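Researcher: Re-running this chain for the archive, since the previous output was lost when a drive failed. Same request as before.
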Amino acid sequence: MHIEIWSDIVCPWCYIGKRRLETALADFDHAEEVDVIWRSFQLDPSSPREASESIAEHLGHKYGGGVAAGRQMIAKVSQVAAEEGLAFSYDDAQRASTVDAHRLLHLALAEGGPERQGALKERLLESYFVRAENPADAGVLRAVAVAAGLPEQRVDDVLASDEYADAVDADQQQAVAYGASGVPFYVVDHKYGVSGAQPAEVFGQVLERAWNESHPAVQVLATSDACGPEGCAV
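Model: Regenerated structure tokens:
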């Protein structure tokens, strides 16, 4: 089974949705046969390369109420995250571009497959939401990527270039083609779309349906004498 997930590393619901999907997979009998691929989606492509304000300040400016209102929004989503075992602490995290992080995620997929990419995704989300680190800082990104097992030289090569920028754009365009206007957005076996950080039960239902449709049970239309584990009836 193939699951593609469009998300951004500064999207709190993407982290919450990740945990909920993982909960569903833990109860799914065929989890070892599921590949999860992370696709790029920049929530705010206009975010600057150089951070100039915190996310709390940005939310307060965008929706009104100033920094206090921004911190209240963060507190509410942090309460939901806590229910999934996540300890958010990103009031002082900076609003900055995530394009380089997405390029590194494509590098991780190319160098180490879905497992390595998944490890990097987790570390990038933790970097932002738990440690409030700058998502555009090359030093931060390098440390996180190397800790996830990526080759140091390749990480440096990517960060010093625009490698995989076309792949990031292609992911974004595919999300639009699927009709996704926000993230997280999940596509299972190129057939089923799921929007938002759904409860684990919903993910479980989708997994079972997709598996059953791709592995249909054989309908036995007729039976007669046959041999079995206990021998042959005569």
